[in-house]
Structures are given as structure tokens and as C-alpha cells.
């Protein structure tokens, strides 16, 4: 992806984030992914209704900021942590001058023109960065991404799929929080949205279990605890949760598809990776891509 010089700086819009409710909703049985022509009917303004958190997006092509409301600002929520991580202010990168947003009508290829490396979610406050995911000049080698998969056969299969679909770049970021939770985020960019969607629909859009097992998570199923009302416009999501008994770590993972980008978010922790930080991280990364 060729970078272009930014001519103007967009105005940031700061949004107040309501707090996370104390309890997550009861699990909801997932509904099979609709056909492309039906998907837009399901897209709505992102809400953390009885779930994790509420975020909003400014118009396409502008920067946005997300600010945090302290629990002490809300009666009854002043003394107990809800499990959210404290992220720094998150700003969507501006588009190069004259470039349309990925879902603008003029952008028939569905391309993200912003620098892919700047679309990665930043680490939360107090986390230790995983330098192994920095790559060279911010670009991760394909073999380092494939190392996330369990078996040699799956590594070869996924590698062939990426090559056949014309993978352009991989940007990645990882960190470990003070409680020992490891997070890894991978953004894979292809030539057009049609290519990324084809890869998703044919190979990565299972509503039962992830098609390719990650290391340490040989048995995973669709995450029924992920709130179905948490919707980010123009981003499709497939979250999975490792089933018991866990391996050395409990692994949660989610594939995201947005325009020409296929993303993978992974969180793992010995003894159990908590649901709220996972849902929060997946949603924030989705917002950056949407």
C-alpha cells in the first residue's frame, strides 16, 4: 500500500463512553452469517447494550477520539472494577488527502487508504509490548503470522490461502497486561474487499468453530457469550472461545473482516482469559477498521 502525504489534519471528535454494566448478558445462540446482500440490514450504530461498553464513530475520513468515563461518575459504580482495561485516547488515523474512506461510494475496491500500521489498536495503560510482533518497519513476515497456528498442516494450508489470495501486508501488535493476559492483533491486507470477503466466506466464516486451530487451543467453539447486540458497521465478526479443559493457557480469538482487511485478535491467559477485556479489545479494533 503506497503512502501519500497528508495535506490536512482532521478535527478530532471526543466521545464520552458510558460505563460497563456489572454483569454480562446471558449467552445467545449465534445466528448463521447472512448473505452479503442481507448484511447491511443487520448493521447499526455500535452499542454496548447490557454488555461491555459503548463507542461511536465520526464520519468517514475524519479522526475520532474515545474518552473514558470514570466509574465514580456514575452512582452505584464507584467501588468495584468492571474488568475493562484503561486504553489511551484512541484516534482513527486521517486519510491521505483526496482518498475516500473504505466504505465511501466512490471507493469501489473497499480499500483502506490509511496506513495499515496506524489502524492497529494501541496497548492499554501499564501493558508490556510484545516486540516480537513489531516486524521490520512495522511489517510482520508471513511466517511469523503463520506461527500462531497449531499444526504444520494448518500452517501450510493457511499460507497457501494467503498467497493465492494475494496478501499484500501484515501489521501486528501484541502486549501483556499486569494480570498475565497476552494479546495479539494481526491485520492482513489484500488487494480489494472482494478478495478479503472471498477468503472469509470460503475459509474463515464458520459459525461453529474456527476452521484452523491456534496454538494451545485445539478445541474452540463459537463464543456464545459475546453480546450479539455489539455491532460495528461494516465489520463482520467471528468470536471463538476455547473449550475446557484448557491447555497451558485459556485462548479467546476473533476474526474480523472489514473491506480489504482480514484481522485476527487473540487473547490468552493461564487459568482463564476474562470475557470483558476480550470483548472490549475486539470492539475497539473493529471501530478502528470500520
The Rg value, from CA coordinates, equals 18 Å
Strand order of the largest sheet: 3-4-5-9-8-7-6
- Strand residues, percent: 15-25%
Run of helices and strands: EHEEHHEEHEEEEH
Approximate helicity band: 10-25%
* Computed structural class: alpha+beta
* Overall pLDDT: 80
Overall 3D form = globular
Report low-confidence residues grouped into runs of 5 or more.
1-79
The biggest sheet, with number of strands, parallel, antiparallel or mixed sense and barrel status, is: 7 strands, antiparallel
- How many angstroms separate the termini? 18 Å
State the total count of DSSP E strands: 9
In DSSP terms, counting alpha (H) and pi (I) runs of 4 or more, how many helices? Answer: 5
Brief summary:
By secondary structure, the chain is of the alpha+beta class. It has helices at about 35-40, 140-145, 150-165, 195-205, 275-290; strands spanning about 15, 65-70, 130, 170-175, 180-190, 220, 235-240, 250-260, 260-270. A hairpin with a 7-residue loop joins strand 7 (about 235-240) and strand 8.
Q: Any chance you could write out the topology, listing elements then pairs?
A:
Layout: E1 14-17, H1 36-42, E2 65-68, E3 128-129, H2 142-146, H3 152-164, E4 169-176, E5 182-189, H4 193-204, E6 220-222, E7 236-242, E8 250-258, E9 261-269, H5 275-289
What does this structure look like?
The chain is an alpha+beta fold and about 290 residues long. It has five helices and nine strands. The protein has helices spanning about 35-40, 140-145, 150-165, 195-205, 275-290; strands at about 15, 65-70, 130, 170-175, 180-190, 220, 235-240, 250-260, 260-270. The strands form two sheets. A seven-stranded antiparallel β-sheet has the order 3-4-5-9-8-7-6, sandwiched between helices. β4 (about 170-175) and β5 form a beta hairpin. It is globular.
